[in-house]
Design goal:
The complex is a heterotrimer. By secondary structure, chain A is an all-alpha fold. Chain A is built from five helices and two strands. Chain A folds into two domains: 2-66; 73-139, no CATH class. Chain B has 25 helices and no strands. The chains are: A mainly alpha, B mainly alpha, C alpha/beta. Chains in contact: A-B, A-C, B-C. Chains B and C meet through helix 2, helix 3, helix 11, helix 18 and helix 23 of B and helix 3, strand 2, helix 4, strand 7 and helix 8 of C.
Chain lengths: 154, 495, 348
């Protein structure tokens, strides 16, 4: 889905106004003119100007919104939204299930989504998770979530 | 001379060479994994260096840092996951080259010109440290403000396509940079009572999201089959094609190295700004500016040399005045103190053999980059043989782990996801990604330098032009904006 | 050779709550049959004894800073004492709020400890969090650096008394200082000094900076008049003859700077301020873990490695056991709160 200049300009304009309005809520450094409000207001003003410029430059085309080819394919939407949902699931579950188990589930599910064979997916997932757990968790001391159910023996 | 002989003897020790080799491999490994930074490689080495003599200790850190900064370009070129904001400047060109089956040309250029930039920066460090450090000391918030403005302007002019859409991207980045409380007023902004948001938007998870996660989402949508990109056939050596580049772009390589060293020597700037400004300079003076951003090697040559030169340049204020130019030199200054090599002008007088040994280590580390980098490129390129449907999920896992390891919490993963979706939407709308990264990195610097300048000048705007260097850079920044405008007006008149 | 750490014990990686006893153990045995039986073959390893798995040491500040350096050396030394890996985890942002919250909110099983810094005595006054030192189990204070008073070496004020008189006479906004963020610890240090000299706090305008190094460079570049950070942070520039130290905000002169008078000697002010670092844990740790950690921390502090490291870096050595450390932290909490309220930096 591609927005034309006018529609994008309207979005940017609204965003700029919101940012400027939010900037009014911040206060300057005590005893100074400038402070926390300066940057949001300045970016807000820049966005408002930019939004107007976009609206002007797109006035010939109207409120054009182009639909990309893929967006007509429900399968593409399903794959995109599932991928996002899987990352959300990882974020929610990794703390309790631990890195190894959650990452394994994520990998297998994603690979099935892209059309990999089940056996390949499981083997690749086990290999990758072991490698990541070892290199990040062990060698580089990244505190990957341990989880309460399963952790690899190193 | 005697001192030089002593220094050579200190470095030629097999133990020192072995330490350099091992930490070089370690640096390559850490750097080539997205999300793991050169700073992290350095921090992990610190406890180990406690038990070493000064020369091997510093050699380990210097080698690991140099290698990991180069290695950050590998996932950038192969998978579009830039390791640092500095390599984000040219990631688009490098990745397009990979897609066209020229991955080895792209990585070879980055490798060779990284080494050239690093060596150039080291030579300047050896020859002109005290003088350059004096100049660096003259930079205050006024000068940095203009430098940041100059850097931000580059984002608009280097982006291919509509400048208005590039501005949209920049504004998104600038807005994201206002989130959190790490601003001069130390006020919490847009945090909605959330603890993690107090820390603001950490740019590496955001960058992984905008570039890499967005690329994974696109692959899910288009369901491409087969390999990610064609593997470049091994018809000619990795280095031989770079000799041609060296003949074609000698000015670019020198200009990138020189500018990179200068900007790197400023404690408040660093490799990020250096790479972007160099890329913009390269495009501005190129005979084929229209090819930038579409897989053109010229920008890689100049910006690749520039960011490694900046890394060497950062040592200038660190050694002469103990002022860290970036987080790596901050760590090393601590190690220097522990090893009794107190930074300061006296470091050149008290134990000159140690400082010369240090310089030799710098040169060696940059030379060692060539064979080790060659090996790393050959090994890493194999990843392109993996079919897309298997590789994309694995990339996503690396994105998650990389984003996690920056914040050491799930917040990094959330950031990556949010910016991944944002990046996907932006590319659908032909909004370039790079300006948003620059806005995110430079936004806080812009705010900080503006506000502190205004406090120092009691609100007097003219202060931005009262200091000679500030006035100079300021005039340049204004010119950058005026010249295209004047041209536009002239063209309209002519038409 | 890159990681000369003892290998992690294969056992006990399984459950988070290992104090559980039999049923917990059975589940683990069931799940990791092989690993556990391999472990049982190793004589002399008791299952329930703390520590049986890696410990996390949370550092609320970024890699490369002073707190990170102290955290990393301590992690290394504790690892040698306890025989289990101690991993440094940087949790940065929000002026330390993120990291301190992570320490206080962790499971109090002895496997998460952290470095608590003086910012804990400031953030709740600013209204950033409800968290105070009372939410922690303070194990020891391992370092303290007194604040200082530094000017550029070409400054017209070459001693602290002259500088004080000039600030007093100058009126509102006549002087500028830098060295931390707005309301940061050195900002408060400078304000506390002014208050002790009965100088109105408006006379000093604060220019926020990211750390002392940035403030010092700005001072040398002519941007500000003074930096009240610890003298150790200005060491290289002092040795280079660019910065002149005027006073130390401590009761005694510092070993590294024997020629620099204390504030009391220089101006007669009673104001002192030291920035400390403590090892702290979430409240409610099991007694055996606490005892072991306390012993290990004391041994690590007294080790030659730690003493040498701190001396070389120019960091101040300061030992205080759990009770004394808690008392110091509580006193500073009250003092800093008073300064912040007076200067209008505290939330009402």
């Amino acid at each position: 889905m591609k927005l034309g200049d006018t529609s994008l300009g309207i979005l940017v304009l609204i965003g700029g106004l919101a940012l400027f309005w939010a900037g009014l809520g911040f206060s300057p450094i005590p005893g100074q003119v400038y402070g926390a409000q300066t940057m949001p207001k300045a970016v807000g003003v820049l966005s408002i100007g930019l939004g107007l410029a976009l609206i002007l430059s797109g006035r010939a085309a109207g409120l054009a919104v182009t639909i990309s080819d893929w967006a007509r394919d429900p399968g593409a939407w399903a794959r995109l939204l599932s991928a996002i949902a899987l990352i959300v699931a990882y974020i929610l579950l990794a703390g309790t299930l631990g890195f190894a188990l959650t990452a394994f589930g994520l990998l297998v599910a994603l690979m099935l989504l892209t059309g990999t064979r089940v056996l390949t997916a499981v083997i690749v997932a086990i290999g990758t998770v072991t490698l990541v757990q070892y290199s990040f968790g062990q060698l580089l001391r990244v505190p990957l979530p341990r989880g309460d159910l399963l952790a690899l023996p190193f | 001379m005697n001192v030089l002989g002593q220094a050579l003897a200190l470095v030629a020790d097999p133990y020192v060479l072995l330490v350099m080799l091992a930490s070089g491999i370690f640096g390559l490994f850490v750097g080539s994994i997205p999300g793991l930074t050169a700073t992290m490689a350095t921090a992990l080495l610190v406890p180990i260096t406690f038990f070493m003599d000064p020369v091997p200790a510093i050699a380990a850190i210097v080698t690991a840092a140099a290698m990991s900064i180069f290695a950050g370009d590998i996932p950038g070129a192969l998978l579009r996951i830039p390791g640092t904001p500095a390599s984000a400047a040219y990631v688009e060109d490098a990745y397009r080259m990979t897609r066209d089956g020229r991955s080895r040309d792209a990585l070879g250029a980055v490798l060779v010109f990284s080494a050239i930039g690093g060596i150039f920066g080291t030579l300047i460090l050896i020859l002109a440290s005290p003088a350059l450090a004096e100049i660096a000391l003259k930079f205050s918030s006024f000068e940095y403000f203009w430098l940041v403005v100059l850097g931000l302007s580059c984002a608009i002019f280097v982006s291919p396509g509509s400048p208005l859409r590039a501005m949209v991207s920049l504004v998104i980045g600038l807005f994201a940079a206002t989130i959190g409380m790490d601003n001069p007023a130390a006020q919490a902004r847009f945090t909605f009572g959330n603890l993690d948001l107090l820390a603001g938007v950490s740019f590496i998870p955001a960058m992984i999201g905008l570039f890499a996660a967005a690329e994974v989402f696109r692959a899910m949508v288009h369901g491409r089959k087969g390999a990610t990109a064609p593997l470049q056939p091994d018809t000619k050596g990795l280095f031989s094609s770079q000799i041609a580049n060296m003949r074609r772009y000698p000015v670019q390589a020198l200009r990138g190295s020189g500018l990179g060293t200068l900007i790197g020597a400023l404690p408040g700037a660093g490799a990020d700004i250096a790479a972007w400004i160099s890329y913009a300079v390269s495009k501005r003076f190129s005979r084929t500016p229209e090819r930038f951003g579409h897989g053109h090697v010229e920008g890689l040559v100049e910006a690749g040399a520039s960011n490694n030169a900046a890394v060497s340049g950062a040592w200038i204020p660190a050694l002469v005045f103990g002022i860290p130019g970036d987080s790596i030199t901050a760590i090393v200054i601590g190690v220097l103190y522990v090893k009794g090599m107190n930074p300061g002008p006296t470091i050149f007088l008290h134990e000159p053999q140690l400082i010369y040994a240090l310089f030799i280590v710098f040169l060696l580390a940059n030379l060692l980059m060539l064979p080790l980098g060659w090996l790393a490129i050959r090994l890493a390129s194999r990843v392109l043989k993996v079919p897309q449907k298997v590789l994309m999920p694995i990339i996503l896992l690396f994105c998650i782990v990389g984003a996690f390891s920056i914040t050491n919490s799930a917040y990094g993963v959330v950031l990556m996801l949010v910016f991944g979706v944002l990046g996907f939407l932006m590319e659908e709308n032909d909004i370039p990604i790079a300006p948003a990264i620059l806005g995110l990195v430079l936004g806080p610097m812009l705010e900080k330098n503006f506000i502190t300048s205004m406090i120092k000048a009691d609100g007097n705007w003219l202060a931005f032009f009262e200091r000679p260097i500030a006035a100079g850079i300021g005039a340049l920044a204004i010119l950058v904006w005026l010249v295209p405008l004047v041209r536009l007006i002239l063209r309209r008149r002519a038409a | 050779m890159l990681h000369p750490f003892p290998p992690r014990l294969p056992l006990g990686r399984v459950g988070r709550n290992n104090s559980g006893g039999e049923t917990d153990m059975n589940r683990k045995t069931f799940l990791t049959g092989l690993a556990v039986s391999a472990m049982l073959a190793v004589p002399g390893v008791a299952l329930a004894e703390y520590p049986e798995r890696p410990i996390e040491l949370i550092v609320p500040w970024g890699a490369g800073g002073g707190t990170d350096a102290v955290g990393r050396i301590f992690a290394q030394l504790l690892q040698d004492e306890l025989g289990t890996p101690v991993n440094v985890v940087n949790r940065t942002g929000g002026s330390g709020v993120v990291g301190h919250s992570a320490i206080a909110g962790a499971n109090p099983d002895g496997y998460t400890i952290g470095i608590m810094t003086i910012e804990i005595d400031m953030m709740h006054w600013q209204g950033l969090t409800e968290l105070t030192y009372a939410d922690f189990d303070i194990l020891a204070m391992v370092n303290a650096d007194p604040g200082g008073l530094m000017v550029a070496s070409d400054s017209e004020y070459q001693d602290a008394a002259t500088l004080r008189d000039a600030i007093k006479a100058g009126g509102a906004g006549s002087f500028k200082g830098s060295g931390t963020g707005q309301g940061g610890i050195w900002h408060l240090g400078a304000l506390g000094w002014l208050m002790s000299e009965e100088i109105p706090v408006e006379n000093l305008t604060w220019v926020p900076s990211e750390g002392a190094a940035a403030g010092l460079t700005d001072m040398v570049a002519g941007g500000v008049n003074l930096v009240p950070s610890s003298l150790a942070e200005g060491r290289a520039l002092i040795e280079a003859g660019r910065v002149k130290p005027l006073a130390s905000m401590s009761n005694e002169r510092q070993a590294l700077f024997p020629d620099v008078p204390t504030l009391k000697e220089a101006t007669g002010s009673d104001w002192t301020l030291s920035v400390w670092r403590t090892i702290a844990a979430p409240k409610g740790m099991p007694e055996d873990a606490r005892a072991k950690l306390n012993a290990a921390i004391e041994a690590a502090y007294n080790s030659e490695t730690y003493q040498n490291f701190m001396n070389e870096r120019g960091f101040g050595l300061r030992w205080a056991g759990p009770e004394e450390a808690t008392q110091i932290v509580a006193e500073d909490d009250a003092n800093l709160g008073a300064v912040m309220k007076e200067a209008g930096l505290a939330k009402e």
